[in-house]
């Protein structure tokens, strides 16, 4: 029988007469090219059930009500779930359903999000078996629709009017209106509250939060491991969906099921008899404090202090998860192991810490491998559904405990895909940001945005730093500027809360005396001479250079003269920096810890690296050789020196740092950059690693004036002398650098304004994200990532899959170019007309200087 379809101009919709019985049901999930399907009403119920289960958890609900500003009733919650049930209404469209049909159907395929908007343009009073009449009276229904169709990670624009009819034609063999009626009747039966109640008004903050929960619920409910397919509609399916949702949400640890082994006292965290002063200060804070800032020297036990804070808040029901953010991937890898070990001590059934680094599928000690069909297979036999959070970068923040870089935090605060999901997932966690001073103005603004949003939802934040200047601290605490004299005289170490500063008592015998010497000359030979001389006397030497080029230059000089003392992997001398494949970087991280870590053996050794070694790593060198750098960075580098009390070789019982400086002074750096310092001031903008030459001069001035530093007693005065705006303005005026100083300040303000344009303002109405530019977590050009041929072996004999090029080598490349590899030796990588050499010294250009 042929269907007779006519277009009714009145009301602008399609009607049918003598249309045959439906032969196809609407599917919501499909697999095996359409051979296996899950009914659309069932998938919609799954997502709504997950949403309800999450909303009934104490911490999640508290965050939702904080976003709304008032308690949310059960009837309102169920109306929200009914909205969630409609999130995939666009899948009714024949052009979407055809994706699961045999070929030659003749339909243009369509996306279900756009079709969702098209569906709203079909004004029919009998839509959804009449349920639409109830939805139409709900306040702000247009805003709710905007949120519904943002469930894949970002809002989508409403299409042009007049296209709805073409998206929903009536076809023989598939009656979308009949399928819509099935959804409508199910909605009325499963959510009867919609006839008498409505959801809470879509206030912007709550709407943004709802977007995140919906995205999370949809992702959870789309996993067949928790929600097996049922192709034929079953009116009793709602209870099945609830049962499956309860089970799956518990399995992946989105419920409040984490139980500490015992009360959150100090001995739950550590074997040490008593906490150290900084740890005791944090442990004594009330759980009603939501923003805590800990200023304490490196090596003072801040990690354990953060874990104790987490245990206390978890015990009080204030949080249900932890995200530990650090500046670098190397620091995240090392911290991940420490945190994972601590969890086995803290919990009766311990969660596995997820390593939140894209491309690194790691939960606890288990490593995952992604298969071609996007499934993940784990390298052990355990069944741990909570590893779901580690299988996709956008899900990292849904983990009970995750350790990663600050970039994951920033992604929750920017107008990028999955920002809502990340922000909502983070809301239940204690957010710890370690080395908070390390972020530039752009990064600080993006982190500030999500921290303020997090606090607005009733979340908890712990900021930690050894070297945070007053100007930066006041930004985090939303305080007015202060004067240099007062800021430099404040007690250190300290904890800051809503009540202000709380001094921390000095740790008996906990300080260290460091002799710091300025060395005129910073070539690779200069650094190598100093390192080899010390290593010959049995010292474990850490050399930190500002650029990869200088690190490689220093490595080449040491390898020529003393290769046996260099850091080694499988007997191969090497160094540590960012231009290694990810697989080789993991080997390097472990090798560095073994060479100069807390438990490293005595004996001469030289570890050369860049900024990848300066923060959050538990290293314990006998001697530090470092390039001149800003004061806060220098103190961080010094934190890798004599970090622990342990045996030292003769001549190195006292801590000593040698600071390599340009032999001609710093004035030239205001005109031309060298070794990562300064910038080309006559260019259109300042760019470089450390462009603040007045800050560098102030640092060198303190080295000259005070050749012996008492750590941590002098930390506050040293940092303020080299970072406080008053101090830098004075120094710039003395040296005639006012114009340069103004450009540095202007650069910071410009970066802050750039961040403001990219930040997701959760107090503003929901709008589409910009798509005409690439928003990043860190400013600066990004290099392309090269995919290497299968079977490529890296610098140390292990398989490697990708290499990231520096931005300056990537111009003209897209990353899609064919890549050829000759294993050599040396191993060469050819892309376009560029030939790269990859080996134990990292990636470099053939004939280039490696900058």
From TrEMBL:
It comes from the Bacteria. Coiled coil: none annotated. This is CRISPR-associated helicase Cas3. The keyword Acyltransferase does not apply. In the N-terminal section; belongs to the CRISPR-associated nuclease Cas3-HD family. In the central section; belongs to the CRISPR-associated helicase Cas3 family. Residues 33-220 form the HD Cas3-type domain. It holds the Pfam family Cas3-like_C_2. InterPro entries: Cas3-like_dom, CRISPR-assoc_Cas3_HD, CRISPR-assoc_Cas3_HD_sf, DEAD/DEAH_box_helicase_dom, DEAD_box_RNA_helicases, Helicase_ATP-bd, Helicase_Cas3_CRISPR-ass_core, P-loop_NTPase. Keywords: Antiviral defense, ATP-binding, Helicase, Hydrolase, Metal-binding, Nuclease, Nucleotide-binding.
């Amino acid at each position: 029988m042929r269907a007779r379809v006519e277009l009714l101009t009145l009301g602008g919709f399609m009607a049918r007469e003598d249309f045959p019985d439906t032969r196809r049901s609407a599917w919501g999930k499909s697999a095996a090219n359409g051979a296996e399907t899950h009914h659309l009403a069932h998938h919609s119920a799954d997502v709504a059930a997950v949403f309800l289960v999450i909303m009934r958890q104490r911490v999640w609900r508290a965050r939702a009500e904080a976003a709304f500003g008032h308690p949310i009733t059960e009837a309102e919650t169920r109306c929200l779930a009914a909205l969630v049930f409609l999130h995939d209404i666009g899948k009714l469209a024949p052009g979407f359903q055809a994706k699961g049909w045999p070929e030659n159907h003749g339909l243009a395929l369509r996306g279900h999000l756009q079709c969702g908007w098209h569906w709203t343009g079909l004004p029919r009073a009998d839509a959804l078996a009449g349920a639409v009449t109830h939805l139409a009276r709900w306040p702000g229904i247009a805003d709710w629709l905007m949120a519904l169709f943002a469930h894949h990670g970002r809002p989508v624009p409403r299409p042009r009017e007049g296209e709805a009819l073409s998206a929903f034609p009536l076809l023989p063999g598939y009656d979308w209106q009949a399928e819509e009626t099935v959804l409508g009747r199910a909605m009325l039966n499963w959510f009867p509250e919609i006839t008498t109640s409505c959801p809470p008004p879509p206030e912007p903050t709550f709407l943004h939060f709802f977007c995140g929960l919906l995205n999370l619920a949809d992702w959870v409910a789309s996993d067949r491991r928790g929600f097996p397919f049922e192709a034929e509609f079953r009116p009793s399916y709602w209870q099945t969906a609830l049962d499956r949702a309860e089970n799956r949400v518990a399995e992946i640890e989105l419920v409040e099921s984490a139980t500490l082994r015992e009360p959150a006292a100090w001995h739950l965290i550590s074997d040490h008899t008593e906490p150290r002063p900084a740890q005791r200060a944090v442990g004594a804070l009330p759980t009603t404090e939501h923003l805590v800032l800990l200023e304490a020297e490196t090596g003072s036990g801040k990690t354990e202090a953060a874990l104790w804070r987490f245990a206390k808040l978890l015990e009080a029901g204030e949080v249900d998860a932890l995200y530990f953010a650090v500046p670098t991937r190397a620091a995240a890898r090392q911290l991940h192991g420490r945190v994972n070990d601590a969890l086995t001590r803290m919990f009766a059934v311990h969660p596995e810490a997820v390593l939140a680094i894209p491309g690194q599928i790691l939960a606890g000690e288990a490593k995952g491998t992604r298969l071609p069909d996007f499934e993940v297979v784990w390298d052990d036999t355990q069944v741990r559904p909570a590893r779901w959070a580690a299988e996709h970068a956008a899900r990292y923040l849904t983990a009970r405990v995750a350790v990663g870089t600050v970039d994951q935090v920033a992604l929750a605060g920017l107008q990028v895909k999955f920002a809502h999901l990340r922000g909502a997932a983070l809301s239940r966690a204690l957010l710890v940001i370690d080395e908070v001073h390390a972020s530039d103005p752009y990064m600080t603004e993006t982190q500030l945005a999500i921290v303020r949003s997090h606090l607005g939802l009733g979340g908890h934040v712990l900021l930690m730093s050894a070297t945070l200047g007053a100007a930066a601290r006041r930004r985090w605490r939303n305080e007015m500027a202060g004067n240099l004299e007062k800021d430099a005289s404040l007690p250190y170490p300290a904890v800051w809360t809503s009540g202000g500063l709380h001094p921390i008592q000095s740790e008996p015998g906990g300080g260290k005396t460091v002799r710091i010497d300025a060395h005129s000359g910073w070539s690779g030979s200069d650094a190598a001479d100093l390192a080899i001389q010390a290593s010959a006397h049995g010292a474990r030497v850490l050399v930190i250079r500002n650029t990869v080029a200088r690190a490689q230059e220093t490595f080449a000089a040491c390898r020529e003269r003393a290769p046996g003392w260099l850091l080694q992997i499988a007997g191969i001398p090497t160094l540590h920096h960012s231009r290694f494949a990810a697989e080789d970087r993991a080997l390097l991280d472990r090798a560095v810890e073994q060479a100069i870590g807390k438990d490293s053996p005595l004996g001469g050794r030289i570890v050369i690296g860049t900024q990848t070694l300066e923060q959050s790593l538990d290293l314990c060198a006998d001697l530090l050789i470092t390039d001149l750098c800003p004061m806060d960075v220098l103190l961080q580098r010094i934190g890798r020196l004599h970090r622990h009390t342990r045996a030292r070789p003769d001549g190195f019982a006292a801590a000593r740092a040698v600071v390599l400086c340009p032999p001609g002074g710093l004035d030239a750096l205001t005109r031309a950059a060298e070794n990562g310092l300064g910038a080309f001031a006559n260019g259109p903008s300042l760019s470089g690693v450390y462009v603040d030459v007045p800050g560098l001069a102030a640092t060198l001035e303190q080295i000259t004036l005070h050749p012996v530093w008492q750590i941590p007693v002098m930390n506050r005065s040293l940092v303020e002398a080299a970072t406080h705006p008053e101090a830098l303005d004075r120094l710039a005026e003395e040296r005639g650098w006012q114009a340069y100083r103004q450009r540095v300040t202007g650069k910071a303000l410009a970066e802050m304004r750039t961040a403001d344009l990219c930040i997701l303002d959760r107090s503003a109405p929901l709008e589409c994200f910009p798509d005409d530019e690439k928003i990043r977590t860190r400013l600066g050009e990004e290099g392309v990532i090269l995919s290497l041929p299968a079977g490529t072996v890296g610098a140390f004999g292990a398989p490697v899959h990708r290499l990231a090029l520096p931005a300056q080598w990537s111009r003209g490349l897209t990353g899609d170019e064919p890549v050829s590899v000759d294993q050599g030796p040396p191993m060469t990588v050819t892309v376009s007309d560029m030939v790269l050499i990859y080996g134990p010294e990292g990636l470099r250009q053939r004939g280039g200087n490696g900058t």
